[in-house]
Design brief:
A: alpha+beta; twelve-stranded antiparallel β-sheet; B: mainly beta; six-stranded mixed β-sheet
């Protein structure tokens, strides 16, 4: 504590007191033994709830952000600070009507408080839900503090919870990126209460998924890759599973494109250099493996797999890898030809004909003429 | 793959499932023929009606899917395809190909309209990833019942951006 207090004094002298009051109700130590550290904490906690005004709003979608809290407060000879910057992570969804839902925030860090006669050091951890609106996101939840405070040489243990209450907003927002200060409301309240404050918690946030998405782009990407790899490992994929995966990839591609329109999406979502077409190539690999044994699939399955390959861009004019497209196309052609050869009724011939026409296999389509005739 | 330079054979094959070889599709491939001529000599060229169906009606085995939109020209790169519902259809298949038979895109679903690429809202950015109509192309729709058996198929209709 002593060393930290020296550090704190040095910071005061340098005019850069670092206190985390706005973030988590930092205890502003009091020389008055009648006042407990908890009371000090409660005082500061009350300072963070000022309703801010704003001109920017978070657009509908899923937002993920991170704030870095620094600064300090001082009043009436009592001071407090964060000895180290603390990271506050938050995530929330904004509905189309601007309502914030499914929000969470959390942080943990160390807080030091000091007066002429007392000093304290506390481990603090806060978490809770986020609500409100996209113009004023409301923080609630609980902050737990534990540690000790030394008053006139007496060491007192502190271990208690306190409610968190604050709000913040985006001071700047453009499509899928927003910035602001998580502590802006608390700082204003502190100043109104006559507390000198340098508390700041600048944040950046970005929209990671559209309003209908149930997860983040990164998380969905991870799930898609995992599921694709599982299908490959299984060896004989069910056609319906492949089609379902293709539809999920398509939705993910669309979400990604929308995010990328504002330049906020990362060019690649996994370490390395693979482009977004990585998933398309996985689908191609699944198809090549599956179509090696076309007898395991019905004619309808082959139709479904071929259409899925074309839909997602494994083959066709939008194919991302023409050489690989040729390979997949050859597999589809061979599989469809085998179904034509094995056709037992007119329905089979009709399905082969439709598939062949959709995939541009005119030779098989012509064969389907004879098949049906 | 073995693709011919005209749609004549494609159209003929598409018509076969219904047991009908369309008049304009039964002949030999004609590399120099315009798609509309090869596909359906009886077409009037009216954008709203497009080319007459080449399949099914005569035999009654497969009905015709009536295509509604887009028009045969001026569709833009990202058109929305629309057709009339088919009684008993549980699913539709849409396929889009270039006039030379290169597949552009395909789709399966229960709806009777879909934007190229399955976008729910047209992207504002011109650099849309995925399939686009950049040249004269064709499209058709097939309808399947709940048992996944084909019950109707459309003409092969031209489309141009």
């Amino acid at each position: 504590v002593s060393n930290r207090r020296i550090s704190f004094r040095q910071r005061v002298g340098a005019g850069s007191v670092a206190v985390a009051a706005a973030l988590a109700a930092v205890p502003v130590g009091s020389a008055d033994s009648a006042r407990s550290p908890a009371a000090d904490v409660a005082d500061v906690a009350a300072l963070v709830a000022a309703p801010p005004t704003t001109t920017a709003t978070f657009a509908p979608g899923v937002w993920k952000g991170r704030a870095i809290g620094t600064g300090g407060i001082s009043a009436s000879g009592a001071e407090g600070f964060l000895p180290e910057p603390v990271v506050v992570d938050f995530e929330f969804s904004v509905r189309a009507d601007g309502t914030v839902e499914s929000g969470v925030w959390q942080w943990s860090g160390e807080v030091v408080s000091a007066t002429a006669e007392a000093s304290g050091i506390f481990q603090m951890a806060g978490s809770g839900p986020l609500g409100g609106t996209n113009a004023s996101v409301e923080i609630t939840g609980t902050i737990h503090m534990s540690g000790s405070v030394t008053v006139n040489g007496n060491v007192l243990d502190v271990d208690q919870d306190m409610p968190a209450e604050a709000s913040f907003f985006a001071s700047w927002a453009a499509c899928t990126v927003a910035t602001g200060d998580l502590a802006i409301g608390g700082r204003a309240a502190q100043q109104d209460a006559g507390v000198a404050t340098t508390v700041k918690a600048p944040f950046t946030a970005r929209m990671v998924a559209g309003p209908d998405a149930d997860s983040t782009i990164e998380q969905v990407f991870f799930e898609l890759v995992t599921d694709a790899e599982a299908i490959i490992a299984a060896g004989a994929p069910v056609a319906g599973d492949v089609v379902d995966l293709v539809l999920r990839i398509e939705r993910w591609h669309h979400e990604l494109f929308r995010a990328a329109q504002c330049g906020s999406a990362t060019p690649n979502l996994m370490p390395g250099t693979q482009p977004h077409t990585y998933l398309v190539e996985l689908i191609g690999s699944i198809l090549v493996a599956a179509l090696a044994n076309p007898a395991a699939y019905s004619t309808n399955d082959i139709l479904d797999l071929g259409l899925a390959a074309l839909r997602i861009g494994v083959i066709g004019t939008a194919a991302v890898d023409p050489a690989f497209a040729d390979q997949v196309e050859a597999s589809l052609h061979a599989a469809l030809q085998s179904k034509l050869d094995a056709a037992e009724n007119e329905v089979d011939c009709q399905i082969v004909g439709i598939a062949a026409n959709a995939l541009g296999f005119t030779d098989i389509a012509a064969g389907a003429v004879a098949c049906a005739g | 793959m073995r693709r011919l330079s005209t749609l004549a054979v494609v159209a003929a094959a598409l018509s076969v499932p219904a047991g009908l070889a369309a008049a304009g599709a039964a002949g030999p491939p004609d590399a120099g023929a315009a798609p509309s001529t090869s596909l359906a000599p009886e077409t009037t060229g009216a954008e709203s009606s497009g080319i007459e169906p080449t399949v099914a009606d005569a035999t009654g085995e497969l009905a015709a899917v009536t295509l509604l939109e887009p028009a045969t020209t001026g569709s833009g790169p990202l058109p929305t395809f629309r057709w009339e519902p088919v009684a008993g259809a549980a699913e539709y298949v849409l396929a889009v190909l270039t006039q030379s038979g290169e597949p552009i895109w395909a789709w399966q679903g229960a709806e009777t309209s879909v934007m190229l690429g399955a976008w729910d809202v047209a992207p504002a950015d011109a650099n849309v990833p995925g399939p686009l109509i950049t040249e004269a192309s064709v499209w058709f729709v097939a309808a399947f019942d709940a048992t996944a058996a084909p019950i109707a198929v459309s003409e092969m209709r031209p489309i141009a951006p």
